[in-house]
TrEMBL record:
Acyltransferase domain span: 23-370
Originating organism: Mycobacterium aquaticum
Pfam families, per the entry: Acyl_transf_3
Molecular function terms from GO: acyltransferase activity, transferring groups other than amino-acyl groups
Protein's UniProt name: Acyltransferase
Amino acid sequence: MCARRADEDQGGLEQVGSVDRIAALTGVRAVAALAVMGTHASYGTGLLTHGYVGLLGARLEVGVPIFFVLSGLLLFRPWLRAAVDGGRPPSVLRYARSRFRRIVPAYVVTVLLVFGIYQLRPVRPNPGHTWTGLLRNLTLTQIYSDNYFTAYLHQGLSQMWSLAVEVAFYATLPLLAYLLLALLCRRRFRPVLLLAGLVVAAVVSPAWLVILHNTHWLPVGAGTWLPHYLAWFAGGMMLAVLAAMGVRCYALAVLPLAVACYLVVSTPIAGRTTAVTLTLFEDISKTVMYAVIATLVVAPLALGDSGGYARLMGSRPLVWLGEISYEIFLLHVVVMDLVMALVLRWPVYTGSAVVLFAVTLAATVPPAWLLQRLTRPRR
């Protein structure tokens, strides 16, 4: 499945043949954003209740773990490179400033825009549409509550729980890097020890779910906190380590496995879409399977495959969409709601998921591009 490659540099993201692997990783971001949009289109049209097809639509939410794997891969690499080269670790202040500039401006504009739209177009129920909800959403603290779903969940911002998790990972990463590289590996590149430490980090996710399902120590919203999803970020961090080791991975070997895992997780093993809550087994199954799928999807692009899959992900249309994927993610839920109500005029849980997806994509791309142009960091 994977083989060592001695001629690859320590970063693991340089050009290989005619394939720009950085571009390919940007392209896969577009796939992740489109998958998230697909699962919301499935939900909005009621497709999720249509047996196995509905489960396939629901599991398109695997786009979120793909985003998390990419974050683990790309953001951990500078700390890892410092350990490999024996250099100084990255400046935490510069890292924080970079993440703030990339995430916050577009997010704040989106939140204010969404609250303005729903002020003019009241929708019920919409518990998050309050002054407190506005403050919570602006600060990405809406998930840290025992009544997140009944007090702070906004209909036009329902996807932002994952951004709150992402930001929690940003804040935690310097500490994780210190624990793994400075304390565990003594500031040296010890890949086996480092991979073992990342396996332990990944195990935090099922352990968190065991606690959540079997005790009353944590609030209901704790199911949306970082520990639940740490395994997804750890998958990307493992890929960074493997890249530094010179491991190479081939799409023809791992993508069929990713597809097989997707078909399996689209069975009731990971819960039925009509169920209000998941059992412990279903919750762990979904979390672990999503980690495997997302890591396998990213692995060939991170580990040097220069074949057709990398060329497809690095193609101009996908790279262009990938460059505005964050903005597409931010805007698509409110755009989808407006498309359903004002353009297609479909009642909720009716209509075609494919048509809703296509019209929403067409309507989301222009404002996403504009938002990206207006808020992207200036050099």
